[in-house]
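### Sample
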Amino acid sequence: MDKTLKFTDSHEWVRDNGDGTVTIGISDHAQQMLGDVVFVDLPEVEDEIEAGETFSLVESVKAASDIYAPISGEIVEINEELEDSPELVNEEPYDGGWIARVKLSDSAELDDLKDAEEYLNSIEDE
């Protein structure tokens, strides 16, 4: 797992792109719990998102799951490949299966997220 990723308790990940933007997706653990992803309801570019609020939805053969914004900001890009290939969330949760790129409104919010080691320890306890 990429050690630069940060995580939420609700299994979203964040990668700091180093340019004031972050990439957001769901963790490998989350996609395993969901099962085969069949649809991703992507947000709109220019949408404002607030940390802790729902900004996307992932549907699998088992369930539909809200995706919560790990940080606040403006969506600057969405992963349009997921429209035709939602299975990328299962196959490449940290690479091709990303959901959105967001321009941060407050980079200090990143400090509130778990690092990879903290996250892995927290899911071992589930």
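The longest strand covers residues 54-60. This sample (Glycine cleavage system H protein) is used throughout the tutorial notebook.
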